[in-house]
Amino acid sequence: MTEGFVKLWPTTLLARELPGAAAANKALQALLLEHESGHSNNAGSADMTTDYLQQDLLAIEHPALQWLVACINKTVADYLRVTGVDADAKWQLQAWANINRLGDYHNLHNHPHSYLSGTYYVHLPGDSSQQAGSRADLDSGAISFYDPRGQANMTAIRGDAQIDPEYRVLPKPGDILLWPSFLHHFVHPNLSAELRISISFNVIIKMTEELLPG
Fold it and tell me: Per the domain annotation, does 9 fall within a domain?
């Protein structure tokens, strides 16, 4: 019997691999490293992630970025349709580059003033055996998402899907993730000497009368 059951307050995460990513990522990696070099003249390379508001990455005219914008827009449209929001909604994108070296990470945070947030992965360390440290449970460069309902797992019992408040994703190059901007997440430290390169973005919905809650 399924009648009468209602799933309340769902949180939807989209994770998919983009077609054509291998070729695009080579061009994106070269572009982002060049972008970092220019940025470091002003703010220092360590500020690429934290200085995200000063970046207008998608305004750069480059075929690989144009490809990525098209893929992001398609992903956003799919997300809105599946979650029941009008897929004809209009939005704007704001994106920035993340170039993480050995030890770099991003503290627990969310993204205020936007509706959706996401990350596209350009390059990730390949061999986890080369990670610094000796613990076997370290996921270099993984991203963790946390249940937005504080302490919802306090009454969980065996078999209850709410027992684990953390959902961890170990992405690969070519993957794109999309989630509600309110969702807290944490980017684990890069424990490899290899670069971890990604492009993060916010989706700002352009409000219209049709989108206002009834």
Answer: no
